[in-house]
Amino acid sequence: MQVEGAFSVGGSGGEEQKSYVVAGAILSCSCGTQLTRLKIPFSHGVYVKEMPQVNVEDYKPGVNIIHFGNCTNPLNPAVKNGQFDTEGVQKAPCVPVITGPWVNGKFDVLIEEQPALLSHCTNTCIYEGSLIRIEDDGQDLGGVSVGSSGSGAIR
User: Fold this and answer.
1) Residue (of 80, 82, 85, 67) closest to 125 by Cα position
2) CB count, 10 Å around CB of 47?
3) Structural domain boundaries in the chain
């Protein structure tokens, strides 16, 4: 099934553009040092612009969300014991611990019986303050690669 990629919500004047998220979307963590891509091991059978659409249950660490480079959250025990970088920031390799589905999915559009994931959805790592956001819905990325320089920039 092919669906339209974007829609508006809200009243007149203050409409917010939201879009469906597809495999390959770019994610960030407020405590991570780099961006990562949202992965799915198999298609749910629904596509946006010929890309597999994802749902709120596509949040599993190591399957859907690999890592965000290094973690800088001081509540993470690995960070407390980690090394300091050249700028004096203490960090350790990111190992996301995400325990629940994405928040604010589109409940009236189901992908394999789960709400569709939208561009404004968020999630959290168990280390308080680690907010995971969708930076790009993935629909128009083409050959864009995610930078690994630690700056979090898309190149």
Assistant:
1) 67
2) 17
3) 6-136
Region of 137 please: left (phi>0), alpha (psi -120 to 50) or beta. alpha
- The token pair at 94 is 């990111």
pTM of model > 0.85: no
Q: How far apart are CA 16 and CA 38, in angstroms?
A: 23
Q: How far is CA 131 from the centre of its chain?
A: 10
Cα distances (Å, whole numbers) of residue 18 to 1, 24, 55, 81, 108: 20, 17, 15, 40, 14
Structure token digits, residue 74: 């001081």
**Side chain identity, residue 67:** H
Q: Which amino acid is at 74?
A: P
pLDDT of 148 strictly over 60: no
- Using CA atoms, how far residue 34 sits from 30, 113, 130, in Å, is 10, 32, 13
pLDDT > 90 in the chain, percent: 72
Structure tokens at 1: 């099934």
Tell me the β-bridge partners of 70.
93
The CB density around residue 20, as the number of other CB atoms within 10 Å, is 28
